[in-house]
Design brief:
Blueprint (H helix, E strand, L loop, with lengths): L6 H11 L5 E6 L3 H13 L2 E7 L7 E6 L6 E6 L8 H6 L1 H5 L3 E5 L4 H13 L3 E5 L16 E2 L3 H6 L8 H12 L5 E5 L5 E5 L3 E4 L4
Parallel strand pairs: 1-2, 5-6, 6-7, 7-8
Antiparallel strand pairs: 3-4, 8-9, 9-10
Helix pairs in contact: 1-2
Amino acid sequence: VVGPGGKGSNQAVAAAKSGSNVNLISKIGTDQYGELAKKIYKETNVGTKYVFITDKYSTGVAAILINKETGDNAISVVPGAAGQLTIDDVNQAAEEIKNSSIFLTQLESPIETVIHSLKIAKSNNVTTILNPAPAAKLNKEVFPLIDYFTPNESEASFYVDGDIKNEQDAKKYAKDIINLGVKNVLITLGENGVYFENANENHFVPALD
């Protein structure tokens, strides 16, 4: 089965479907996957002024394997054009970032580009959300740029000295993530729910049946 995707793309489409005014910053190729992406963005009213098109790279693709017994998945990503998003590209969209209420990003784009975009957002009092997927080493000055840090259990484990698998683990290690400098952390635990913590409160939300 072939369908549109990519973490940033999926987040943009979901936000647009929920009624938000969304503008996506990304890069796609001129191939059939790029055409598929443009089609879904048009259908869901995702703004594409800053979806850059290149004929030098193919549109990013991913192969997703799902365990039919457990629902667990394994994903292999080829970033393609999205992996070539540059700081200059982001600078062209700087006014869009500055005028946003929320800036959401992830780590499938080049890290230096992601960090640059977070700096633009944070310096203009835009609420920032980083989904650190795939998990990657971040310099300590990056964490204070993040208002909401949203790793899954394996990604969260990457940033602490421990293995997070459930609610108890999340409660044990969330403070370590807060101490890195992020303001709020939401650790998604798949079928086990979501754990939230900041400097003032914490709570757990079980997954829907």
